[in-house]
Amino acid sequence: MRVIPVDTSSATLLVTKLPEVKVRDRQTGEVAVDPVTNDRLMVMELVFIAQGGSDMIKVTVPEKGIGEGLVMGAPVFLSGLIARPWESEFGGRTRHGIAYRADAVMVGTPAAVQG
Questions:
Q1: Which among 99, 37, 25 is positioned nearest to 64, based on CA atoms?
Q2: Beta strand pairing status for 30-31 and 23-25?
Q3: N or C terminus of the chain: which is more exposed, having fewer CB within 10 Å?
Q4: d(Cα 92, Cα 58) in Å, to the nearest integer?
Q5: Is the model's pLDDT at 1 over the cut of 80?
Q6: Is there a contact between 23 and 29 (Cβ–Cβ < 8 Å)?
Q7: What is the spatial distance between Cα 68 and Cα 81, in angstroms, rounded to a whole number?
Q8: Superkingdom, according to UniProt (predicted)?
Q9: What is the mean pLDDT of residues 42-52?
Q10: C-alpha dihedral, 53 to 58 to 62 to 63, nearest 10°
Q11: Structure confidence at residue 90 (pLDDT)
């Protein structure tokens, strides 16, 4: 599956929904876990503001990567953000989208790079 790194250095990211446990199977209530680390996964919603526009995105983050002090409307930065295009068929209908995943989410803005 294709993995696309996402550069957020010129974007503003604001929390619109606090992290909650990601459910893998809605019928059984099975919680989603990282297949490599077995860490529980969380999902949160952000508004991504860049280039004169904005989009709402859902981002999956391992529970250990959730920084302290997250509140609604807080500016945040994401470490290791990637996008994965996906497509599935269910009931004869094809659906597609982009799944976002980050290693960590922290309150504030990243420090300016000195160089």
A1: 37
A2: antiparallel
A3: C
A4: 25
A5: no
A6: yes
A7: 18
A8: Bacteria
A9: 96
A10: 100
A11: 84
Residue entry with tokens 């990567």 = 65
| Of 103, 102, 112, residue with least CA distance to 57 | 102
Q: Strands 53-62 and 93-101, how do they pair?
A: parallel
| Residue 95 tokens, joined | 């659906």
pLDDT computed for residue 108 by the predictor: 87
Measured from the Cβ of residue 28, the count of other Cβ atoms closer than 10 Å reads 8
Q: Give 110's contacts (C-beta < 8 A, 6+ positions apart).
A: 9, 77
What torsion, rounded to 10 degrees, do the Cα atoms 98, 101, 106, 110 define?
A: -70
